[in-house]
Model the fold of this input.
Amino acid sequence: MIKKEMIAMLLAGGQGSRLGVLTSNVAKPAVAFGGKYRIIDFSLSNCINSGVDTVGVLTQYQPLRLNTHIGIGIPWDLDRNIGGVSILPPHEKTDRSEWYTGTANAVYQNMEYMEYYNPEYVLILGGDHIYKMDYETMLDYHKLHNADITLAAVPVPIEEASRFGIVITDEEKRITEFEEKPLRPRSNLASMGIYIFSWNILREALIILSGQKGCDFGKHVIPYCHKRGDRIFAYEYNGYWKDVGTLRAYWESNMELIDLIPVFNLYEEFWKIYTKSDTILPQYIGDTAVIDRTIIGEGAEIYGEVHNSVIGSGVYIGPGAVVRDSILMKDAVIGEGAVVGKAIVAEGVNIGAYAELGIGEEVPNEKDSNIYSFGLVTIAENSMIPPYVKIGKNTAVSGRTTVEDYWEGVLTSGGTLIKAGGKL
Done:
């Protein structure tokens, strides 16, 4: 039997519905980030940088882009004969077929995979956070405290603590209580959704709780283990960590990359972030281009102005176009004279000549003000914006729109335009 000290189970099946039209056709971990990466690259890079060479990636929602990106794991040195990366979608069993109904349920359904490697420890990760963490240091902490479960926790401002699952610890950092999004938090240590389990503890808990519908680590497994007296410790992490689960957080974390001294450095030699790199032409900056405070991906072709933005690979920005405070993903086209302000433009979008995005006053979005907010314009992948139209703030557009779809050529602030074939 193969024996691994620690394997990772990376949960990458979520839709990421709070990212709105950005995740209509792609799982949240596969969304582009920082001009050349995808969100899942950070968890995978952390694994190989930490010496974790066996990773099961649990996929479900819209998995094609994710599967293609990961492949056999070559960019992360996870193409191994023993171990490496394995894509683990829901699969048919002898007596039934079942979707993953919760984080713990997804891991339970892959018990055979874990038993094959017979690990001493299992690392549970999400595939949708931006951070760098040495899981080996966390494992050392787990062993030092003779823990059954170690939960990674990050200090957050106390006024924001009610947005998170909060842990309360004693002086040894052993967890004494959990509070899920408490109105009056008694601690500022927020769970990061990263756990190390001693294998026998995890296996037993998953088998006992297997009948629970929607079984989840934070809501069911951890409280169950705590109630039965397992030793659960908090590992305090003080580095950069960002849950990019909302459009605002996603936009802000991209913008933080372009600071002169970024809070989160993508280019450290000793902790590289690896990704699948396509073989494409170098970027081209035309004579008329004006660029400042901008990340530019390979193969981009720029003739207009770009300020304070993140530009993906293969993006075209035409003459006279102006892009500010925006994220343009792979292969987006910005037509001549178009103006794009504070927008998230997904892959393959075509914005017509002299169109204007991000105009007017801020008005709450009519369909979903919790998702489309913060003054952003969000354009779903492969959408088409016709020439000369104007689009306001807190808006979302999906599909190949024509000028007839815009009232007098305008989508006012707070508007949502989903064309046939597009998805909200």
Helices lie at 40-49, 64-70, 103-108, 111-117, 135-144, 199-208, 217-227, 247-256.
